[in-house]
Amino acid sequence: MSRVYLNGQFLPLAEACVPVLDRGFLFGDGVYEVIPAYGGHLFRLDAHLDRLGASLAAVRIGNPHDREGWKRVLQTLVDEAGPGDCSVYLQVTRGADVKRDHGFPPPEVRPTVFAMASPLHPPPRERLERGASARVMADIRWARCDIKAITLLPNVLLRQAALDAGDDEAILVRDGLALEGSASSLFIVADGILATPPKGPALLPGVTRDLVLELAQSHGRPWVERDIAEAELRCADEIWLTSSTREVTAVTRLDGVAVGDGRPGPVWRRMADWYRACKAALRSGEECP
Ligand code: PLP
Which family does it belong to (predicted)? Predict the structure, then answer.
């Protein structure tokens, strides 16, 4: 594996160590980002850094780097990862104090900053063509799901419950509304219109979600941000889940029942083409859309 970044240094993974009193380890007190890079170009980097800044501000951790500083660190990891596609994981915690105490540590405790690049294998074509299966589950997370916090125990349990049921992802429902997946944003197609829940504290503002809406807009495909009732989810013509690493995946079975005719739908097909073109443009250094 190429070198990782820890607190100002690039070093081999085996040498990257954090103290056991780090608040990320003790409390899950930190935030993170996952950013794909295609052909050496970080995808939607500014949007990811904007969201990182918002997450850090929301949990009152000072941003350890300015934008240029982040770009230098992340691009170094991407360059060292070699020619293939990769995804960069970065995490900032509130740092390591000398004792375990819920209250914030004194100001001299600096945040712990860790980042690494891993090979990214986009979903194979036949998997995309088959689509994914999802299970509806009660959202057991907290009231600030807009913060990309490393505290992911509910998401972990929900994803595992879906896997245990033989499905790929959990779609989370709160107060009768379908919100998002355990690690993905949610779209439906109903009456020919693409719909996704509006941003707010109940869900993560997905970077891929925004790109999908921009692609819909630029290709004249009608879309709307609105609440999606669980009942509507169950009779949608198409359901998609999106994320930086899973891209745009059609859900073809929901709770064991076929979505539409049980195959990825025609609107998904078009969006998948637009998304692929977007990645290709980025590889040749162009903007998209
Ligand atoms: N919603 C949740 C809960 C997530 O964890 C993720 C990604 O990890 C997403 C949505 C999708 O976000 P993005 O498109 O920025 O990867």
Answer: Belongs to the class-IV pyridoxal-phosphate-dependent aminotransferase family.
